[in-house]
Specification:
about 180 residues; alpha+beta; Aminopeptidase; eight-stranded mixed sheet; about 25% helix; globular
C-alpha cells in the first residue's frame, strides 16, 4: 500500500527525495530533537536525504516504513508535507509494534497527529502477527500523550532514565493499545 487516505484533505504516503528541503525546513528546530529519540539538531539536507533513501529501500509491505503526513488546506491546490509517522521498532515474537510521529509546528493543534495515529493503527491492525501497538513519550511531551489517549492507548508505566540526550537522562511514559480493543 502506497497511500492511506484519512480524509479528502489529509493522507499518508511515502517520502521522496523531493521532500528533503521541506524536511530540513520543518525539523531544523531544537524542539524535535528534544521531543523525539532520533531526530538530530541541527537537521541538515544530508540527514534528510540519508533518511529518505533508507525508507525508500523498504518494501511497501514492510511495517517499519515511514509515512509522510500530507494535507491540502482549503483554497490550496497542492498538498503540504506536515509531519511523519511510522513504526520504528517491532517484535513479531512478542506481538507488538511501536508507533512514532511528529508534526511540524505550523500544523500543531489541527488534529493531524490524532487522525494519523488512528489511520496507521487501523492499517497495522490488519497484520495478524500484531497483538498490540506501543508508544513512548517523554514525560514533558503532554501533547503526544493526548494524541495517544484520544486513540485508545493506556499509559501503563513511567520509565525513569529511558534515554540519554545531550548528556541528560530523560524519563518516558510507556503506552500500549491492545488490538483486540481496536475500534475502527
Amino acid at each position: 500500500m502506497n497511500e492511506i487516505r484519512i480524509s479528502d484533505s489529509l493522507y499518508l504516503n511515502r517520502a521522496s527525495l523531493r521532500d528533503a528541503a521541506v524536511l530540513v525546513s520543518l525539523l531544523n528546530d531544537p524542539v524535535y530533537a528534544q521531543m523525539t529519540q532520533h531526530i538530530p539538531y541541527p537537521y541538515a539536507t544530508e540527514d534528510a536525504k540519508q533518511w529518505i533513501h533508507l525508507n525508500l529501500a523498504k518494501k511497501d509491505t514492510d511495517l517499519t516504513k515511514v509515512w509522510c503526513i500530507r494535507a491540502c488546506y482549503q483554497g490550496q491546490t497542492t498538498t503540504q508535507l506536515c509531519g511523519m509517522i511510522g513504526v520504528p521498532r517491532l517484535s513479531f515474537d512478542e506481538g507488538w509494534v511501536e508507533v512514532g510521529y511528529w508534526v511540524g509546528k505550523a500544523h500543531w493543534g489541527k488534529g493531524m497527529a490524532t487522525q494519523s495515529v488512528h489511520a496507521l493503527s487501523k492499517w497495522i491492525s490488519t497484520n495478524p502477527s500484531v497483538q498490540k501497538i506501543i508508544a513512548h513519550t517523554f514525560t514533558n511531551n503532554t501533547a503526544s500523550g493526548r494524541v495517544l489517549e484520544k486513540n485508545g492507548f493506556s499509559k501503563t508505566k513511567k520509565i525513569k532514565n529511558y534515554i540519554s540526550k545531550n548528556g541528560k537522562m530523560i524519563s518516558a511514559f510507556y503506552w500500549e493499545k491492545p488490538l483486540s480493543n481496536y475500534l475502527s
